[in-house]
Design the sequence.
C-alpha cells in the first residue's frame, strides 16, 4: 500500500478548513459591510414590529415598581423635612417638631404615591412619541464594525471551520476508498 495516500484525507481536511475560514472572512469583511445598511434597516424594521411599547409601559407602571422605590422617596422626603427645609427656611424649622415632620411626611408620601403613576404614564407616553425603535436599532447595527461582528459570532465560526475540516477529511477518506476499489 502506498502511504502517500494517507496524505489525501489530511490535505482534504486542511482544504476544508481553509475554505471555510476564507468563506468566513469573505462573509464578515466583504459581504456584511457592503450590505450592512440594508441588513440594519431590515433588522430594525423586524424588531420594531415585534416591540410592544404597551408591555414596556405596563412594566414601568406596575405598582410593585412604585413600592420598590418608595423607601428611597421616603428617605429623601425625610431628609428634606428634617434638614433642608430648616436650612432654607429657618423660621419654619423653629416651629416644626418631629410629630409635625412625621405628619407632613405621611401626607407627602401619600400624594407622591398617587402622583407617580400619572407622571410615569406621561413619561412613557412622551418616550413612545420620541423613541423611534427602528431607527435606533438600525443606527446601532450600522455602527458595529465587521471585526466586532466576527468576534460576536466567533464560536459559530469555529464550529463551521471544524465542520469544514471534518467534511474535508471525510471526502479524503472516501477518495482513498474509491481509489483503492478502482485500482
Sequence:
Amino acid at each position: 500500500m502506498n502511504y502517500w495516500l494517507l496524505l489525501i484525507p489530511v490535505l482534504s481536511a486542511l482544504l476544508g478548513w481553509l475554505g471555510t475560514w476564507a468563506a468566513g472572512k469573505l462573509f464578515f469583511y466583504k459581504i456584511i459591510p457592503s450590505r450592512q445598511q440594508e441588513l440594519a434597516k431590515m433588522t430594525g424594521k423586524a424588531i420594531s414590529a415585534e416591540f410592544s411599547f404597551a408591555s414596556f409601559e405596563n412594566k414601568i407602571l406596575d405598582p410593585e415598581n412604585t413600592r420598590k422605590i418608595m423607601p428611597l422617596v421616603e428617605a429623601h422626603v425625610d431628609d428634606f423635612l428634617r434638614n433642608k427645609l430648616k436650612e432654607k427656611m429657618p423660621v419654619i424649622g423653629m416651629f416644626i417638631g418631629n410629630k409635625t415632620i412625621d405628619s407632613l411626611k405621611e401626607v407627602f408620601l401619600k400624594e407622591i404615591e398617587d402622583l407617580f403613576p400619572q407622571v410615569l404614564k406621561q413619561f412613557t407616553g412622551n418616550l413612545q412619541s420620541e423613541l423611534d425603535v427602528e431607527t435606533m436599532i438600525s443606527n446601532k447595527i450600522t455602527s458595529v464594525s465587521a471585526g466586532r461582528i466576527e468576534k460576536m459570532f466567533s464560536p459559530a465560526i469555529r464550529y463551521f471551520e471544524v465542520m469544514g475540516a471534518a467534511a474535508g477529511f471525510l471526502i479524503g477518506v472516501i477518495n482513498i476508498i474509491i481509489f483503492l476499489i478502482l485500482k
User: Anything to note?
Assistant: The chain has one domain: 3-182. The chain is about 90% helix and 0% strand. The two ends are 11 Å apart (CA to CA). Helices lie at 7-50, 53-61, 63-88, 90-95, 98-130, 133-143, 146-152, 154-182.
